[in-house]
Design goal:
Blueprint lengths: L4 H8 L7 E2 L10 H15 L6 H21 L6 E4 L2 H11 L7 E5 L8 H10 L2 E5 L9 H7 L4 E7 L11 H10 L3 E5 L11 H4 L3 E5 L11 E5 L1 H6 L38 H17 L1 H21 L3 E2 L11 E5 L6 H12 L1 E2 L1 E3 L2 E5 L6 H17 L1
Parallel strand pairs: 1-11, 3-4, 3-5, 5-6, 6-7
Antiparallel strand pairs: 2-8, 7-8, 9-10, 10-13, 12-13
Bound molecules: pyridoxal-5'-phosphate (PLP).
């Protein structure tokens, strides 16, 4: 528990007071301030007198959101671009790299489809080799293997910072160092980490780090953040083009020689869902008001409690034990005879505890609104459920 938690729970998440939400890896119920910010934005557009002021409104909300993202990521606001989902950010290297036959992409077998299909597509289209580090006997990916797969023909290393299924977290600095030594770029799918734990893309040496809003960033569906390194901004043309890439702040719309925006914003090619930006702005404010270090510490401590309790119930923990090696989700396996969907359903309907099933096991995830009591209730509910079904 952290100092402001009780107040935040009452004011922002009253809908969670009589239930236990251990499913933030899937999505997060909106905080009240997120809903309010979106309503305000929609109401603003209901008003026909807004006229020209609308552009200023877009700009203010966007700038405020970028400042929030910069604070969360410990980078400059110029290093962040708005994206509509995680894949959007990963499509920047997909479309922006000059792929040649014989190049390769290094990834892993554990990835969510978002971080697989873009690479499968380009591999087919351009005869680029797709190299996947194997899932080992512990259902984890070996970083040594990832590193061995990188060579001078590697143009991109694309990995999840935290895996959606097992919760394994890679050591990003180790990967980016080797990739850069070979002249490759590194893109992280960070949706399972941003907002829940410290994610500092500049310190990691990431070239791209993309995260959709609706999970731990606690934002609305349809908006997210993508960090883009200054090295990429200087060396890669934004591959998706439109008005948004260019600096039209002077309103000179017929000018055909406009320069790109400064920084990562040049990768945004047009209007984004601003209602959602307003919501994301509010959720970033909420996370930043507590501080990501505090949120992370809180989440990791609940995960420790959870792992201990799950082990007492004889579940097999697949997630790495070391906190630096995992996110804030736990993947645990139950006896094979048990019906996983039935467990999830019973937990939900009978005990008001929301979890999910992924990858032949149960997935439990925590965030800033969870308490030690939630974990205890979740464990008791699981114990009963396992006996009942
Ligand atoms: C690791 C990971 N990446 C990406 C996504 C979602 O991708 P997108 O934001 O492009 O819809 C998920 C959603 O479950 C995920 O777990």
């Amino acid at each position: 528990m952290f100092e402001e938690q009780e107040k935040i729970l009452k004011e922002e998440f009253p809908q969670l007071l009589d239930r236990v939400w251990l499913n933030s890896s899937a999505f997060v119920p909106h905080a009240k301030s997120v809903v309010k910010a979106m309503h305000q934005f929609i109401n603003y557009f209901h008003d026909p007198t807004i006229g020209e002021a609308v552009d200023n409104h877009f700009r203010d909300v966007t700038n405020d959101t970028m400042d929030g993202a910069a604070k969360l990521f410990k980078c400059k606001s110029d290093d962040v671009s708005l994206v509509i989902n995680t894949a959007h950010g990963l499509n920047f290297p997909l479309l922006g790299i000059d792929w040649e036959k014989g190049d390769n992409i290094v990834t892993s077998e554990l990835e969510f489809p978002t971080n697989y299909y873009p690479w499968k597509y380009i591999s087919r289209r351009k005869q680029v080799e797709l190299r996947e580090a194997k899932i080992n006997e512990k259902l984890q990916i070996s970083e040594d293997e990832i590193i061995e797969l990188i060579d001078d023909k590697t143009k991109l290393v694309a990995l999840s910072l935290v895996q959606f299924n097992t919760g394994q977290r890679v050591d990003p600095k180790r990967i980016t160092k080797v990739a850069h030594d070979h002249g490759a770029l590194v893109a992280f799918d960070a949706i399972q980490a941003c907002g829940a734990t410290e994610v500092y893309p500049k310190e990691m040496g990431a070239d791209f780090l993309s995260a959709g809003g609706p999970k731990y960033l606690m934002g609305p569906l349809g908006i997210g953040l993508c960090y883009i390194s200054s090295n990429v901004v200087e060396s890669m043309e934004p591959p998706m083009q439109g008005t948004g890439n260019y600096d039209f702040t002077d309103g000179d719309w017929m000018n055909r020689e406009k320069p790109y925006h400064k920084g990562a914003k040049r990768f945004q090619n047009g209007t984004v869902p601003f209602y959602c930006v307003a919501g994301l702005n509010a959720s970033l404010k909420l996370i930043n008001s507590i501080g990501i270090e505090t949120v992370s510490k809180h989440n990791h401590s609940l995960i420790e409690q959870l792992i201990e309790g799950l082990e007492e119930l004889d579940l097999q923990i697949i997630t790495p034990y070391e906190s630096s090696r995992r996110g804030v989700l736990v993947h645990a396996r139950v006896d094979k005879s048990k019906d996983l969907n039935k467990i999830v359903e019973t937990m939900e309907e009978k005990h008001k505890v929301t979890i999910s099933t992924r990858y032949d096991g149960l997935r439990f995830s925590v965030h800033l609104y969870n308490t030690e009591d939630d974990i205890q209730k979740g464990l008791v509910a699981l114990k009963h459920t396992l006996k009942e079904i």
